[in-house]
Amino acid sequence: MSTLSPTNGRLTSTTREERLLSFDERYRQQQFTRRNWTLLYGALFLAALVGSVTVSDFSIPGLIKGLPMAWNYILGTFPTLTLENFWADLANWYWGLRFWLRLLVETILMGFVGTVMGGVIALALSFPASRNLVENTGTYFAARRTLEFFRTVPELVFALIFVFAFGLGPFAGVLAIAVHTAGALGKLFAEVNENVDPRPIEGVRASGGNWSMIMRLGVVPQALPNYASYLLLRFEINVRGASALGLVGAGGIGQDLYVAIRQFEYTDISAIMLLLILTTSVIDITCEAIRHRLIGHTLTQVA
């Protein structure tokens, strides 16, 4: 049996010390590099912040001075309600309730139809926009750029284009919501597709399934709960967005709100805004409950 000589022992000890020193040196180098990158990012963030404040003319004194004026404007839109004539004052405040409720329903339906149409387009484009589902780089690039265009152009700009093309009314608003929704949801759906388990996809492919069968049997069943969750979230956003499209004549309650603002009908402004706030709150709470049930059901199935 061989034994280590003193010389070999010293060499071994020296080698260990060299390794420790090398490890310590690499660690210090990594810390130094990380610190330099952190300082660089911090400097870039600070420069961007200073530049943004300069370009936007942001002013703390101006903000402090303007906030009370904004609050006074909001308070000025509310009527004076007295206990003696409370119901009469309330009826006078909401004199156009039936007309506003009809416009409110129109706004909700605009958001719903636009969300469904945009969701269908987003689902169709999300598969070629997923890097793990297509091998053709040109197809992937075209799908991604199309989705970027859809979500980059603001809804109001699309609404103006469609109002010019199809005339005033909710149809232009629905198309504007659908196009913008397709771009936003398409990106989210594509990211969901890229994170699915590849084993079902390989199983369908090994069984001789074509590309459409792989999408339908290997991808959609895994991603469907996330699709529904994002779709509900987008519906909440679209109902709020539909109320603003009326400013350009694209239908909904926003059109009457714009008229009230231009004619300085302050009590009508507060009445319509309270209806919008109440409606969007109910929709948000309902959609949130549905999303939590979907997520909880999915987690239960996984467990």
Automatic annotation (TrEMBL):
Please name the source species.
Devosia subaequoris
Gene3D superfamilies (UniProt xref):
MetI-like
The protein's predominant localisation is membrane
The UniProt GO MF terms for this protein read:
ABC-type phosphonate transporter activity
The family annotation for this protein states:
Belongs to the binding-protein-dependent transport system permease family.
UniProt protein name = Phosphonate transport system permease protein
Q: Which residues form the ABC transmembrane type-1 domain?
A: 104-287
Protein origin, superkingdom = Bacteria
